[in-house]
Design brief:
The structure is a single chain. The chain is α/β, with parallel strands linked by helices. Strand 5 and strand 6 form a beta hairpin.
Length: 284
């Protein structure tokens, strides 16, 4: 009986989704979280439930949704993964620096803003032979083979240019970050923080904290935009005087800036404010 009832409900929801999308969206806004839980708890119907999921995205207006099937149908050529980003709200996510290269290349990114998303993602698996990939975790593989070859050559050149500076920044921030590296994600912003593959992300940390669960300490990766003027400025200072204290100040500001873009408070706002004021005066 349970199997038959479940099958009929899933079939009815799929029909509603196909024939009356407006009604389905209204239903989904009320019960979407429960449907998402089914991906984790109902392994027998996991694939059918995936077809019923809806998400806002970087290409939808607020309050509008895209299904995974629709997402896959409009993937750009050479796209191999379904990209997503998690966070507290759409407003926070659509302004994330992690989105910059995806906007530039016209690649759609799903916005996952509910705690249940974090719990179902580890066991989600593939959809239509495409794996899900967080744009704020690990490395990003975008573009054609030719584009990636050019990007790799440019990155190799920049890595040589900024190698010693990056080591200096990493030494200055060793208590807060795991690694400093040049970014493939950033086109406008100077810096962002990335979670290493397999590590817990900030959204999950906040969920654990809200549940009064112990939160493992995880250091993240600071990525720097090799094309941003601030990096050129820091490199000039470094070439002039490798012990210039302003290099450490700039490093701290870049780290705090990356925190703020994620909606995370800096550890010492008084010092942060003073650093900004001091550097403004120094540049006048």
């Amino acid at each position: 009986i349970e199997k038959n009832v479940t099958s009929k409900i899933l079939s009815a929801l799929k029909d509603m989704m196909r024939k009356s999308n407006e009604d389905y969206v209204s239903f989904y806004k009320e019960f979407g979280k429960v449907i998402k839980e089914g991906v984790e708890v109902d392994q027998a119907n996991k694939d059918k439930i995936k077809d019923l999921l809806l998400y806002e995205s970087s290409k939808t207006k607020p309050g509008e949704y895209v299904s995974l099937k629709e997402y896959v149908e409009r993937m750009v050529p050479d796209q191999k993964e379904i990209y997503f980003i998690t966070g507290d709200s759409r407003a926070a996510l659509e302004n994330s620096p992690h989105l910059e290269v995806f906007k530039k290349k016209d690649v759609e990114v799903l916005f996952m803003t509910e705690p249940v998303d974090e719990f179902i993602l580890p066991g989600f698996g593939e959809y239509s032979e495409n794996s899900l990939k967080s744009i704020a975790q690990g490395d990003i593989d975008l573009g054609s083979e030719e584009e990636k070859k050019i990007a790799e050559e440019q990155k190799k050149e920049a890595s040589g240019k900024y190698k010693k500076l990056i080591k200096k920044v990493q030494d200055a921030l060793k208590d807060d970050i795991k690694e400093v590296r040049l970014s493939d994600r950033l086109t406008d912003s100077a810096s962002c923080l990335v979670t290493d593959e397999g590590d817990i992300n900030p959204q999950m940390e906040r969920i654990f904290a809200a549940m009064n669960q112990p939160v493992p300490e995880v250091k993240r990766i600071l990525e720097l935009n090799p094309d941003h003027p601030v990096l050129e400025k820091m490199n000039t200072l470094f070439d002039s005087n490798k012990k210039d204290p302003k290099i450490a100040d700039y490093s701290e500001l870049l780290y705090n800036q990356a925190l703020l873009t994620e909606g995370v408070a800096v550890k010492d706002p008084v010092r942060f404010s003073k650093l900004i004021s001091d550097l403004m005066v120094a540049n006048n």
